[in-house]
């Protein structure tokens, strides 16, 4: 079909009508400033990079956030020094230092995730944040990525501290195979990130930092006791218990079944509260 | 321009906003007036997308808030001056705002100067700010992106008289540039000082709205003459509504209409004046009658915009 055969172009007519409609309402008030093309057009909200920048900065620009990182890294340094002084001098190497540091971070990094997820509600900054970006799940995503980024950065620092400690150990104790590091270290990074994500998820679900921190440390422990006592649950243990399912991960002994255990436990302890938390946040009234 | 159309918000059986319809026009400061708990803050949270409405629509610059591109640059909001992290400094709060809106950091210093927070104050933590300082910081935060629309919830709360005068200057200038300002207050005299338009709300319902001067002028004309009976006839012949009080007539019209009717009827006038309606009394009447839980129909809704339209149509 040839468009030239048409006597008029419907698209052009529509455009003209739209322009007329705009003129009819446009100049009614001479004081109306032109809002520029940007007022209505353009994609909604703000770019994701800006959100991520904001959320990273928010994690370190308050005393609580800053001190949490200082305490975490301070503890890492203390553990390294401890191993250097009191450790078994013949075997203390990189694996020992990194393993020790990850114990401390396993305890403290989730708090970073909890604070990232709860601060908008505990400090009521949500009134500001969610008017800057009304698409709340993008804010949640930015917070999650910011917490993971800071978690990875902490682990990188811990690794660096471990390398320095190993260098010192080599110089003064001459241990056996000091630089050996197995798959368990990489598994440890994944375990840390899952643990941190679980903190974010609990924070999103409960929104009050105290409640989220308490739940994070108490509920899995209670669960472990419960599954240990009830025989019917004992067999299901690795499927539903995060501590047991991450054990082979940090030991570097993962196999097909262990991965299935891990996926199942992470779905229960991280994915489920994360998804429910996201649903609640997208529906909640921000006050 | 901010538009509320038939906006209703219910919490269970409680109706926080009941069929709210009004427009905050560009070029003027609109005062959203009502007692505590009347629904002002709820309406402001609905229009900024923080609270979902039960029914009806609220738009800013012709769009739902959530569809605005970089909304904080188009709509400056101050919903609660204390809803900021207490441990951040004023400067840090504005810096975060500048990053979010995408304006250079130099904006932070410009705005600190504009709202009168000095270098030392800007480096103090929010928890050490007085309410007045928090309000100034909140206004600076709202203005970061040079927005077209301002939505301020109780911005004058905690400001001293000097601060209120400052805010009137600031918001008046902002409106004169053709921008839109909607601010709420539970204090009539604050709104009278700052606003051009008034929207009065009680128990979630709009009770009165229109231009401040027209709302004040709705008291009618008080007239006394040597022959009230003849004057009444003359006025009624002109189609004016006349009610008589003890020693005077009250006419729903303009002084000119009454004067011409008196001239035509040859009646000597002793007094002719515009009754100034006391907004304070009106506010108390409207709000107390709703507070006592009267049926909404008891309260006569006043809408000077509506009468404007009728007059121009006639």
TrEMBL record, chain A:
Transmembrane segments: 67-87, 93-117, 145-172, 178-197, 204-226, 258-281
Keywords linked to the UniProt accession: Membrane, Transmembrane, Transmembrane helix
Keyword Membrane assigned: yes
Low complexity biased stretches: 19-36
Domain of life of the native organism: Bacteria
Region (Disordered): 19-42
Protein name: ABC transporter permease
Organism of origin: Arsenicicoccus piscis
């Amino acid at each position: 079909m040839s468009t030239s055969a048409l006597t008029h172009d419907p698209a052009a007519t529509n455009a003209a009508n739209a322009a007329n409609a705009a003129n009819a309402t446009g100049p009614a008030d001479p004081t109306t400033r032109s809002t520029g093309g940007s007022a209505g057009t353009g994609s909604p909200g703000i770019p994701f990079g800006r959100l991520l920048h904001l959320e990273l900065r928010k994690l370190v620009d308050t005393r609580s956030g800053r001190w949490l990182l200082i305490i975490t890294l301070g503890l890492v340094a203390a553990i390294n020094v401890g191993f250097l002084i009191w450790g078994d001098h013949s075997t203390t190497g990189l694996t020992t230092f990194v393993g020790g540091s990850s114990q401390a971070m396993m305890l403290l990094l989730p708090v970073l995730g909890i604070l990232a997820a709860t601060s908008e509600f505990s400090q009521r900054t949500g009134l500001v944040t969610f008017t800057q970006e009304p698409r709340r799940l993008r804010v949640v995503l930015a917070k999650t990525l910011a917490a993971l980024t800071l978690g990875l950065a902490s682990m990188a620092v811990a690794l660096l501290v471990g390398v320095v400690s190993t260098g010192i150990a080599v110089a003064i104790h001459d241990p056996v195979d000091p630089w050996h590091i197995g798959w368990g270290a990489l598994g440890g990074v994944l375990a840390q990130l899952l643990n941190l994500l679980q903190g974010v998820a609990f924070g999103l679900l409960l929104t009050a930092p105290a409640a989220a921190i308490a739940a994070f440390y108490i509920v899995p422990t209670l669960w472990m006791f419960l599954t240990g006592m009830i025989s019917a649950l004992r067999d299901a243990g690795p499927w539903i218990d995060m501590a047991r399912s991450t054990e082979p991960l940090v030991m570097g002994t993962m196999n097909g079944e262990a991965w299935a255990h891990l996926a199942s436990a992470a779905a229960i302890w991280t994915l489920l509260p994360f998804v429910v938390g996201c649903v609640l946040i997208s529906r909640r009234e921000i006050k | 321009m901010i538009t509320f159309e038939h906006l209703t918000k219910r919490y269970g059986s409680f109706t926080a906003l009941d069929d709210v319809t009004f427009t905050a026009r560009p070029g003027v400061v609109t005062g959203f007036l009502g007692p505590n708990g009347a629904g002002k803050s709820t309406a402001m949270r609905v229009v900024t997308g923080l609270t979902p409405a039960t029914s009806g629509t609220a738009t800013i610059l012709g769009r739902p808030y959530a569809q605005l591109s970089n909304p904080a640059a188009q709509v400056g909001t101050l919903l609660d001056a204390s809803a900021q992290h207490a441990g951040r400094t004023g400067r840090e709060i504005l810096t975060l705002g500048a990053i979010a809106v995408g304006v250079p950091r130099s904006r932070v210093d410009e705005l600190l100067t504009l709202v009168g927070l000095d270098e030392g104050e800007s480096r103090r933590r929010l928890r050490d700010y007085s309410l007045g300082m928090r309000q100034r910081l909140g206004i600076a935060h709202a203005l970061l992106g040079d927005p077209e629309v301002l939505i301020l919830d109780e911005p004058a709360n905690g400001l001293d008289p000097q601060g209120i005068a400052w805010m009137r200057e600031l918001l008046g200038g902002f409106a004169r540039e053709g921008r839109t300002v909607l601010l709420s207050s539970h204090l009539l005299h604050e709104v009278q000082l700052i606003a051009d338009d008034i929207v009065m709300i009680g128990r979630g319902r709009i009770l009165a709205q229109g231009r401040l001067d027209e709302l004040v002028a709705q008291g009618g004309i008080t007239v006394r003459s040597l022959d009230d009976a003849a004057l009444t006839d003359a006025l009624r012949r002109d189609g004016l509504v006349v009610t008589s009080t003890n020693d005077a007539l009250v006419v729903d019209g303009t002084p000119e209409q009454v004067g011409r009717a008196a001239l035509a009827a040859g009646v000597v006038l002793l007094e002719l004046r515009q009754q100034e309606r006391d907004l304070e009394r009106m506010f108390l009447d409207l709000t107390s009658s709703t507070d006592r839980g009267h049926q909404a129909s008891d309260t006569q809704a006043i809408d000077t915009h509506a009468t404007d339209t009728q007059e121009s149509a006639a």
